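Hi L.,

You mentioned the student needs an example of a multi-chain input paired with its predicted structure. This one should do, with 856 residues in total across all chains.
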Amino acid sequence: MAFDDIPCTHCGLDAIVPLYIKSADEKEKIPFCCHGCKTVYQLLQHRGLDQYYNLKESGTSFRKSRPVEISNDKFSYLDDENFYNDYSQLERSGMRTMEFYIEGVHCLACLWLVEKLPDLIEGVFSAKLDMGKSIARITMLPNAKFSTAAAQLNQFGYRPHPIHKDTDADELLKKEDRKMLIKIGVAAGCAGNIMLLAISLYSGVTGVMRRYFELFSLLLSFPVLFYCAIPFYQGAWSAIKQKTVSIDVPIAFALILGALSGIFHMIQGEGEIYFDTLTILVFLLLFSRYVLRKVQQTSLNSSEISNFFSTGSVHKFDNQTKVYKDIHSKYLKVEDQIKILPGEVIAADGIILEGSSTFNTSLLTGESLPIVATPGDEVFSGTVNLDKEIVVKVDAVDAQTKLGKIIKKLEQERVSKAPIVSMADYLAKFFVVIIFFLATAVFSWFVFQNQFNEGFNRALTLIIITCPCALGLATPLALTRSLGRLARNGMIIKGEDVLQRLSETDTIFLDKTGTLTHGSFQVVSWDVLAKEAELTSVIYSLEKKSSHPLALALVRYIEEQSVSDVTNLEIHEYKENLGLGVQGIINGHIYEVRTLKDEDRLIVGEVTSQLGVYKDSSLLVKILLKDRVRSDSKISLEKLRSMNLSPYILSGDHLSVVEEVAKQLGIEKTNFEAKILPEDKGNRVKDFSHCIMVGDGANDALALSSAYVGIAVQGSVEVSLRAADVYLSNPGVSGIVKLLDVSNETMKVIYRNLLFSLMYNVLGAYLAMNGVITPLWAAVLMPLSSLTVVVSTIVGTKSLREY
Amino acid sequence: MEIVYFLLPMAILLGLFFVGSFIWAAKKGQFDDLETPAHRMLLDDEKKNDSLT
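Structure written out for the whole complex:
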């Protein structure tokens, strides 16, 4: 059998078990990796939008591609009056604009498709996408419904999440960004011109013309020294006030001293001016800080995340109109009555008034099998309703729900996470004190010998050449590059010290469900005891009607196995028995797909779910389903071990399940725990000072926040995203290996950069103190050290270059 | 070479003009999104009516 990896026609990733459809002329088979991609392809063909695929070929990919996940979200809550007025902004002529974070945008073709919205949906005036932030700004005509635009985006596989325009905070951020950019522009403009003037000064122009050029150099340096350099003065001042030294202190000092001596020399009529060096210094430093800031902005900050991922729509019973209306969950109050349909996430804690159903509580507790609840039972926010419609009376919302309490607790813990001192700041303190001491010593020595000028010159040279601009650049540059690389690979880091922390860790705690395993059931074995025609169709038809995770797994399995000969048969008297299975009459026989009756069970334990297909009470097929371990988990764990990290498993699931997963992955008995509660996960993690926690559910949130580094994986709940320091948007543990690799290598580059700048400075200091170089030389050589650092960062290390 | 005394301020004024334009553009938000326009310009304009070509 040929092992060619067939790429999915839509997303381009390998289709491991390809789904095929026939092409328009019936001659070819077109492959897809999954149902989602196939659906979008057919939709695009149907709407005449297949230019999408041409664009995909021609454009470069901005982010890694992912298979399409189509959700069943309805977006009518967007049209609810409260929401509409709250979330959208009024523009001129009555139009309204709302911003959405959309998932899955990764290339030129996606950009084209999203911005085509005005042509596809009536009422959309404009759709503008910001690829860096994945935010779409959609402007609708007055009285047009946002739900139509959102639904269309969703159909294309770009799931939209409305963002609340927190105008104050947003505007502030934007203004700050612009201010920084303006400072950089002014610094660049002035520095460039000063350098041009400096050419003639270095070439030896004399006399009045020299004065003239010097004067203009001085004037041009004013904007830079008095406006652009303000951040450094502020930073230095606040450090001094706190009786400490940060990297801003020597920089500010060099700027002031250099400017003063330049002016002094001008007045004297002889000597060098340093305005070119000083202004270029300001420009380089501002630039590197800005770039770092921009890279960090592509990651989501805490308040934005909650907007992106909170469950939107709730069906609330309106007492006045006596019908259910769709509203956004944030407008829900205690005592409200809500209806929750199968497949929907529950938005608040409450008591069931009507209906019984099964629920997926894995995000809250980590249990992989659903639990049953009936009228009178309590249900919780964050869990998923699986089978039947229920009506619930709300008794807790937001911060008072079980989920909300977890969020609150972790926000309190958050504050106590100690910030680590960055390497550069640490060295800077050391450095500055020494240099100051040396400069004073040299100066005094020469003054003592009545050589004021010589002393001053040597001290000045010393200070200029050891000005730690390289030191100040070393860390930001290396971090920027790495953070950018990681973001391209779907890894989002919150905070600059995370990479350093990661390189210091020695233990890693892993959640089981969703992280080490797929988090969904998969068919492990399909044992046909008695063959029958159309049996697959029977099973398919019965299971298609249920939304129980086991049913979904069966349907998925059948769809992936055979496309052509499965049909949806007519069922009479369909019945779903909660917690047991489904049954119906097809072609005159009673078929049941249900958990195996005791007499037919294999002695496997609770690990697998065992289903049987019965025809008129006789067993035809035995099906075993399991939440399978991801194929990359074992290898990744081995790699982690080779990096000197000890892996542990913490799970809220049953012991036997966890035991088996641990056995599969080679984890010893002492290193895993089952049936663990969220608070205990947090406590366990706290016992280790330098550990990583990896998880996705709400039951991991406390641990994520207490760990030295918390990593939330794809599929995470809002709570976990808030608590974590890193978000991996690609599923599985292999991403963590990459992340750690990048952190270690980045730290190497940072240390190397710091080493270079130190060596440079030591050499320069030696030469300066011995009078070998003049302040002029110092001014020329200083940018050179920065250049070395820049080149060193770009070159990186061998493995970093691969990303 | 005395003309330099006049040229220099003129050149700097020109430079200032450009810095001014930069500041104006930045305040207007032209530099807020630097990534997307790079991709967007690769898209062809669609012909709205085929009367001319």
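You could point out the following to them. Confidence is low (pLDDT under 50) at residues 49-53 of chain B. Chain B touches chain A through 26 residues (CB under 8 Å).

Best wishes,
N.
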